[in-house]
Amino acid sequence: MLDAPRLPTAPRTTREPAGAPGNPAKVQKIRTFPREPDEHYVEERRVSRELFARLALGPVVVDPCAGFGNIVLEARAAGLRAYGSDLVKRAPAIAGGCDFLSEKWRPPTRVRGDFDIVCNPPFGHRSDLLREFCEAACARAATALLLAPVRRLRCAGPWLQALPLAAVIHPSLRPSMWPGRIYAAKLAAGERLGTGFDEVCWLRFERGREGAPVVSWLREG
After folding, report:
1. Which of 26, 103, 139, 175 is most buried, with most CB under 10 Å away?
2. What is the DSSP letter of 64?
3. Helices marked H in the chain — which ranges?
4. Is domain 28-209 given the CATH code 3.60.20.10 in the classification?
């Protein structure tokens, strides 16, 4: 089985919005940060808001890598029952100490029957970590959507073919993916989050799915 090459432990980069303080209009400044502890990088809420507005999911959604709870909040705003957990507790409504890759992981006690998984998992520097999250999600949920950097899929074909991949879905805009502490500071200061540096996509898995996946875009309008 082929595996993606190990990536160097380079700092994560992100782009400041054009016109930000010290940043001339129409020019984007790339900032570099040390890697975040526990690989806690936060997607903007509009990423999951767009997803729930355009795809039929639920009625129960579980985010096992919930972080600040953005996906859970947007799922509830869309009228779904949503619950979140994470290895580290970072929000009041999110259960902590829950390792999704552990055999002991269980969905929240209020979840009965089938549920959908929607999450932005921490991929880290291990080339096989994305595969482990995808395999765990497929084993536990009727439908699973995982947010993934497109660059991590360059060598993923061999193991993705063994999973029930139904679709590769691209957001309408490239989102920013800030380190958690910077994301929280920017929100508290009322600053814009800007446009992201890496292309991302949703990987949609469906239990029992056979055949080639569909490639689609969440276009506005």
Report:
1. 175
2. T
3. 45-54, 70-77, 129-140, 157-160, 180-189
4. no
